[in-house]
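Weekly structure sync, notes
Attendees: PL, DS, HV (note-taker this week)

Item 1: 60S acidic ribosomal protein P0
DS walked through the input record. Source organism listed as Citrus clementina. Sequence as pasted into the shared doc:
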Amino acid sequence: MATRLSKAEKKIAYDARLCKLLEEYSQILIVAADNVGSNQLQHIRAGLRDHSIVLMGKNTMMKRSIRLHAERTGNRDLLNLIPLLQGNVGMIFTKGDLKEVSDEVSKHKVAAPARVGLVAPIDVVVPPGNTGLDPSQTSFFQVLNIPTKINKGTVEIITPVELIKKGDRVGSSESALLSKLAIKPFSYGLIVMSVYENGSVYSPEVLDLTEDDIATKFLEAVSRVASLALSIRYPTIAAAPHFFINGYKNVLSFAVATEYSFSQADKVKEYLKDPSKFAAAAAPAAAAGAAPVAAAKEEKKEEPAEESDDDMGLSLFD
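Item 1 (cont.): predicted structure, written out as tokens:
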């Protein structure tokens, strides 16, 4: 017969387990666990068993253990976890890919009815169609101002109706109607709220970023750094090419306006003295582009000549 632990012994065992996980794992997902049942949580644990551990507990106990462990080990980064432990939350310690773990957690959702007093997480819309209810049930629809008609002895909803708005509390009439229609509008599961990784805390939306998204953001940042550096005339690697080009333009402008010159400026001055050289420089490029077009036309002209019957002096009636 297994001996039952006292409350004090349970707290000591929980503290030891949490501290051990904090030492072994550097990646933690903070998850909200509202309306998540024990059976559902068991399935989530089974799906993450190979690489992750789900730990639930009281916030005060978790905060105390994290604070004392940070003081003992000198790892002050762990204190960033404390502000995240608000509400009904838990922690998932993992050594796997954070994106894959987050996706696995989101898979385990269970449909749930709209119970009275719950705050709706989404808009609830009742679709049009036959409800299968007999005409005596029309009172439910009348109370909620849902247009109906009797069709073949059953109540039929004419148009889609927004029954509950996101953020509103579910009333008794709405709950009773959805129950009669066998509609379970809500789904609940663990929701990733924050990500802790090697002391850094960030939003779970970051996990959805692809390499292309990161490259785009990086280029935007480089462009802004270059613009700022040019505006305040502060040299940076991003702005260096622009500084060189602008400097070359200034020196070229000075050379064109004065007798001073250098090799690159000599060619520009020749063009300015004799604009016809612009046309001469452009002619080879135009000729190179026209050559393939002319060759294509020559081929088109030759094709009908090969297939013509007139060359043989014959016709269809000879």
